[in-house]
Amino acid sequence: EIVLTQSPATLVLSPGERATLSCRASQSVSNYLAWYQQKPGQAPRLLIYDASNRATGIPARFSGSGSGTDFTLTISSLEPEDFAVYYCQQRDNWALWTFGQGTKVEIK
Amino acid sequence: QVQLQESGPGLVKPSGTLSLTCGVSGGSIITTYWWTWVRQPPGKGLEWVGEIHHSGSTNSNPSLKSRVTVSVDKSKNQISLRLTSVTAADTAVYYCARVGKAVVSDYYYYMDVWGLGTTVIVSS
Predict the structure, then answer these.
(1) CB-CB neighbors (< 8 A) of A101 in chain B
(2) Along the 108 residues of chain A, how does pLDDT read in single tens digits?
(3) Which residue, among A53, A89, A91, A93, would best test binding to B if mutated, counting the most B CBs under 10 Å from its CB?
(4) Helix, strand or coil for residue A100?
């Protein structure tokens, strides 16, 4: 089973600041990695797929990078609506799907 | 645009069976896409439950495998989830989602459309 480890667990920042979230896989997932945003009481929303492709309607301030085992989600300038929990996710060889444990982005 | 809507009993007794459906609107379930279930216990992260293709092919989480059945009803354009022998640990919000494909391959591996979710509590 491929384990995804996200860091940090919590990121405390102010609006306008840059957020850098990390996701590390226990073995290579190539570029088959997705990122989701989840706000309280809402379903997750797809932000990034194939490590760096923004999903439809996602603002350009969200960007993804990385391949293999190390991935990064960057929010270039935090907007008030960006404070949420972010998950990375992969699927292991057409079988087990796994999610990271999440990074919470909190307002300072 | 495709929309998903989960439905089912909000309360299930311990040792009973959880049964949920996910209605697909705005598009046919008979496509190249897979359809999946994900759950989220209160205050915790996301856990993949199982998935299905309209052809009937399925996969499920090994940790749940013997208890999970995912099925498709093409005439109703919906998928279903059945989880047997439930315990309090199965209390969660259950989401259905559509599985999207990588740009440069036929690898289906991320969830691009989600339902709103439905809360299931296991309690006597």
Answers:
(1) 45
(2) 899 999 999 999 999 999 999 999 999 999 999 999 999 999 999 999 999 999 999 999 999 999 999 999 999 999 999 999 999 999 987 678 999 999 999 999
(3) A91
(4) coil
